[in-house]
Amino acid sequence: MACQHEREIRIIITGKTGSGKSSLGNALLRKKIFKTGCLSTSITKKCLCHTERLNGHRITVTDTPGLCDTNDSNAEQLVQQEQMLAKQKRDREASRVKEEQAKRVREEHEEYIKKKNDELKKAEKELQERIKRDSEQKKRNWNMKEKRVKIN
Ligand SMILES: Nc1nc2c(ncn2[C@@H]2O[C@H](COP(=O)(O)OP(=O)(O)OP(=O)(O)O)[C@@H](O)[C@H]2O)c(=O)[nH]1
Ligand SMILES: [Mg+2]
């Protein structure tokens, strides 16, 4: 799950076969995730998505088969890329909803803590006033007792 302060970056790499899409994806992720190959034949056959955490960022890179792929038709690749984009949009929406829910829960929690703290402070103040009142009353009673003793 994404940490609250983490920024999320999503990248989809498209381009011609052999143009270095998978190599770029690996360079961005600082890891050899996507298979790379020669310039003439298509290496990447299907869209592949990978997420890494780098310098406090969540980076999701999607590698796609090349346009002018030697195997699939461009139409098929475009459909795949379209599906991948739609999936990323759904993921983004889901993560936005999750963040909003977490924010709401956090705010409710903070509000509850504040309310309880205020109640506690009020009760403490009332208690101190009562102690003060009682001690003043005791003092008054004591003074009256002393006066009576003196008179007698
Ligand atoms: N000179 C040079 N070669 C590169 C560069 N990036 C990738 N290559 C080489 O180009 C070839 C193809 O790289 P890939 O990353 O597999 O290319 P691709 O676009 O993913 O290819 P497909 O998956 O087949 O569509 C490999 O031999 C890489 O080593 C670059 O920036 N400069
Ligand atoms: Mg590739």
Tally of helical runs: 2
Q: Strands of the biggest beta sheet: in what spatial order?
A: 1-3-2
Range of strand content: 5-15%
Structural class of the secondary elements? alpha+beta
Fraction of residues in helices? 55-70%
Q: Report the C-alpha radius of gyration, rounded.
A: 35 Å
Q: What ligand species are in this complex?
A: guanosine-5'-triphosphate, magnesium ion
How can the largest sheet be summarized? 3 strands, mixed
Mean pLDDT reading: 87
Uncertain regions spanning at least 5 consecutive residues: none
Task: Output the helix-strand order.
Answer: EHEEH
The dominant shape is: rod-shaped
The number of distinct β-strands equals 3
Protein name: AIG1-type G domain-containing protein
Region (Disordered): 86-105, 128-152
Keywords: GTP-binding, Nucleotide-binding
Family: Belongs to the TRAFAC class TrmE-Era-EngA-EngB-Septin-like GTPase superfamily. AIG1/Toc34/Toc159-like paraseptin GTPase family. IAN subfamily.
Summarize the structure.
InterPro entries: G_AIG1, GIMA/IAN/Toc, P-loop_NTPase. The chain has 152 residues and is α+β, with helices and mostly antiparallel strands. Helix content is 57%, strand content 14%.
